[in-house]
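ingest -> fold -> write
write: protein_1
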Amino acid sequence: MITARSGFTKFRYQLYDAGGCLAGQLLLPTFIPVPRNGWAADVVPEAFKDHVKISWGNRSLRVEYDLLSDRAVRPNDLKFTLVEGNATLATATVCVSGRPTWTIDCDVGQIRLIRQARFFRHRFAVLSDAVQIGRIRETTGFSLWRRKFEIALPDTVDPALQAFLFFLCVNAWFR
């Protein structure tokens, strides 16, 4: 089980392993990220392009995204890609029309995130082949400044992939 904690900012999350040792972090961009296939991809200078960064141990990963639709009024469907070096580790398709769905293709197989409604709490169920294999939930308590999350997935799931799933949940909660 991995726990994630934020400080006063929601742009940086410290990731702790099952033993409670700091093992990595999730850094969200302070600039607005530019999709690879968006109209601004060629307009925005390289110095202002920023990616979501995940570090776990000595591994350094980034999250890139593409637009899958071009709606002017409603939100666009998105595709997030977890990249380590030049290798793609996982892709997530986020469809926002109707009730949002998150489908992740990775080495474990196909994973789906299902938002579970709770008052004042954020909670996602993680499913593989329609069977719940874990959950991602907020365990903050009564604090609005520092948030705490629990990522409870089997040990067979790569910790970097668990951090990616946590990023998808954070992106859904706070955007």
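write: protein_2
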Amino acid sequence: MKTGIYSVLCAFITNAAIGACFVPFLLLGLKKVRQMNTFWILGFYWFLNGLVNLRALKVFSAGAIREFLQHLSDYYDLADIPLALLIFAVSVRGKTRKQLLLVLLGFVAGESLLIGQKGYAFSWPIVVGVGVSLIVGFSITGLWLYLKKMEHDRFENSMAFIHGAFLFAYGTYLIIYLLFYLRASGTYSETDSSLLYYTSLLFSAAITSAGMFSYGWRWTRTSNPRYSSSSS
């Protein structure tokens, strides 16, 4: 009975999480949201997340489509961290943006060199471990800087949601990563890790969507337009 309920719960969470990944992309349909470069990249980021995770659904679990999605997932693993760093960089200005872009370029260069010399299988754990740690660190920094300010514009309020979503998603992934690589015999469950991953994905996508929706729905002409596509 417990196994049956657990399986149903896993299936429900997985399907809900994958569906939620496409919501930020759909929110680009809101006029004010699609005026922001940050939200375009964010919507594309979540669209790719949903796409590569489609292989977890039964309808895509076999045949050529699963093979295609698996190859796409391998490539996305390499683009995931750079995309997240790009989102952070585009959302700010001045010296902070330059610093983030330098980190982004340094990460891509290091990733490319490591894979070129050692191959994908050897490099993947290192790339993921370093990259996830970077995103967790920048998410915490972003939230800390937000909390230090007394007043915020609409975009900054929205980005607080985004930083929180990234912290939750990548923080959970970091836990799963450590459990996998530090696992002792019989203590690691792939099913439990999968449930934890998709639960994290669901909540992160929902938090991101809430942030984007709050901006698109409540945006006014008096908001600071400094982050719009026309000023980037």
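write: annotation protein_2
The two ends are 56 Å apart (CA to CA).
Residues 220-232 have pLDDT under 50 and may be disordered.
pipeline exit 0
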